[in-house]
Records
---
Amino acid sequence: MFKQLQTFRIVYETRNFSHAAAQLFISQPTVSTQIKQLETELNTTLFTRNGRQEIVPTASGKLLYRQALQLLETWDTTKAAVRATGQLVKIPCRIGASHTTGNLILPGLLATLAEYGEHFDFHINLANSAEILTAMSQHKLDFGLVEKPLVTDNLNRLAFGHDELVHAGNFDSPLWLLREPNSGVRHYTNAFLKARNVQPHQVMVIHSNQVIADLLDQGVGQSIISRHVLTDRVPVEHLSDHYQRRFFLLTKTQPNTDLETIQQVITNYLQRWH
């Protein structure tokens, strides 16, 4: 039954039997069979087809998805506990952070969480905001820290803190240092370039705020970047209120009950952060 629920979860999230089969490393007929078995067991229809490829969950499918998330997480915790009988069982806690929040917020937050290391096994992942959102939606992360106001089903969003983006670096340089397209900073950079009618002749795409900050510190190029990651040596141009932004904590609408303590610790820390 748990194997069928796992297959159902991937089908629900991909909206495609072929994509689900590829993620699960099984054949498409096997995916179809497992979904059919679930529908027979529950005496309902879980999906309807919308065109040749995309499928749409029914009301029953949406209800089962919400319940399946809790069942699968409970099952994973139970398996870990049984396998580690007689040993101290640490609860996994997966935290994803965008590069900006990783630089500004993560060090202090992890220092706070360190005292819970006896009972929790922390895994930290750095990526851009869109990738963190995707990983949260696919249940690969328990908590996400992002700087882009992203919204999706099955996730809660808590705003906290403030950040100021500035135009920084060598303003006469033709070289623009850009973050990758799906990052929160790139979103603001594109808006800035459009508003100033600037079309950079030279660009360098870098997946790290810190690397960009280091280059600016050496007098290389110009960029839109968080003021907090710059040294005093870097020239800056302060921008309008449109470049003042907030950070966001992403959490699951149906969280893992084993992580309630950690969620409260994280929330309390972020509400004090400024």
---
Amino acid sequence: MDYKTVMVFGAHADDEIRMAGTIAKLSDAGVRVAVVTMTNGCEGYPQMDMKDTIVELRRQEAVECDKVLGIARRVILDVPDMGLTNDKETLHQCIKLIREERPEAVFTHGPVERHRDHLNTHLISVEARWHAGEPVSAELGESWYAPHLYYYKGVLGNELPSITIDVTQTAEKPVESLATQISQHTLFGRTKADFLAEVESIRKNRPKRTEKFWITERVSLDDFLPLN
């Protein structure tokens, strides 16, 4: 994972937390991590009195998450939750962002999902990664081909080859990130205090932790994978 820049696509503002340990590990190593959040969080309110403020609240939570993980740039596309479609405008936005950041690796959702926003994030980001490397749509920036494409969620079983990354040294980061997502704590069934207590326990005991990624069918390897 000798990268200078990576880009992570997530349907919602907390989806990238699935790979939080790896994001923090990369950031600590000096890798620039850019996150594209496809939707604005408008349906993420667990109580009616939050409906009018949830979009801004979710943006604030994303900022706090970025601080925890060392995310260098986050772009939130102004698409309503449950309304993400594989349209030309959104595809163009994603192509432009890939060409701006010029990542060596793109991480995104896999194809096995129940949520329409997750499924369309998969479709749009995979296609955008391909189009970004083609000599098309010059107004969106200079062509850039990201050679590595990984799924960090949304894969069924062992249908694709996978790699497992040791994130023991950043094992607390997924939990610390979830602590910032206050509007979603009802969904998680836990409080901020619960998450922070777990963070302290992880820091004290430092259990071994790993994160799994799938090498997509759209990546061609030109050699055997290294042993370590």
